[in-house]
Structure prediction request, 374 residues.
Amino acid sequence: MYRYLMILTICSAVGLQTWLTLFNNFAVEVAGLEGIHIGVIQSVREIPGFLALLAIFVMLLVKEHRLSALSTLVLGVGLAAIGLFPSFIGLLITTLIMSFGFHYYETTNQSLTLQYFDENTSPWVFGKLRSMAAASNIGIGVFIYLMAALLNYTQIYLLVGGLIIATSVWALAQDPTDRDIIPQRKKMIFRKRYWLFYFLTFMGGARRQIFMAFAVFLLVRKFQFTIQQVTTLFVINNIVNYFLSPIIGKSIIRFGERKVLSLEYFSLIFIFLAYATVQSKALLAVLFILDHIFFNFAIAIRTYFQKVADPRDIAPSMAVGFTINHIAAVVLPAIGGVLWMVDYRIPFVAGAAMAMISLIAVQQIRVPSRQQIS
Prediction:
């Protein structure tokens, strides 16, 4: 299962990284889109995450590990098609397809990791998976940087999407499952004792959109970063995360989820406020790298859930959690796009406020014994 998830995680990471690296430049330079268009597309991109709870019902028909492979296959198809439709509607539809694949894979990936690895191992596994994803992103970043002068956007999208499709077809023929794994409930699960997991997941989704929808757009639109410069930043991010992700996993095991998440949210307050005020291109690049590092700390939200949850609730709760994560994500980019037109600083100030609220909430983390849970 570790090898299986590693290979599909590489596919998912490469697909998302290609989309992230090329999208803003493709949207501005080829499709001629404005901030409001970017915001709407970003909102539509999060709809599949909002519908992740439907994965529970899909798993009534398709085994969870097979759904993982099917999801990366759909991601590859959507990515390959993006360059063929350089318009607002074209980007809207192809991004939606790509996003269904990405979000459903992430749902099953998190669920399978928590099912197959215990509390003392899962943070390390999450860290290693993120580390390998970072290494893969370095590779695809270097590829895009070099190929940008030789291939056009359409050719790059087709090539990367085709490789993901081919790997996903291979994965469909594999069976990495263990018959001794605790069976999962095949229905939606909402429990009062999981309230803090739900809340932190919701706030994490809102905070993430500030980075995904507006930090990259800030680089391209306001500071005129080129595709090579944006790609270079993502490569640097992934080099740092390749080394840091396993350390973050080990830190969660050693220091606990509350301390790790407190460090993340405290730091994000200042990072978001800096986004709104910094006028230096170099300093903005540093903020972008720091912001990206703290993404990995979100591992602690899932490992906290593993410690307080009934083991049979993991698969349905990961799907429900993904939906909760995307409630704010569906509407925030579109609203933020409108606010951006008023003042680009507003979305970042809002991000700082959300980080403050999350910092307060995370102090409520308490991990009961396994006997108390059962």
Residues 84 and 268 are 37 Å apart (CA to CA). The longest helix spans residues 88-116. The mean pLDDT is 85. Residues 2-173+188-366 form a domain with the Growth Hormone; Chain: A; fold (CATH 1.20.1250.20).
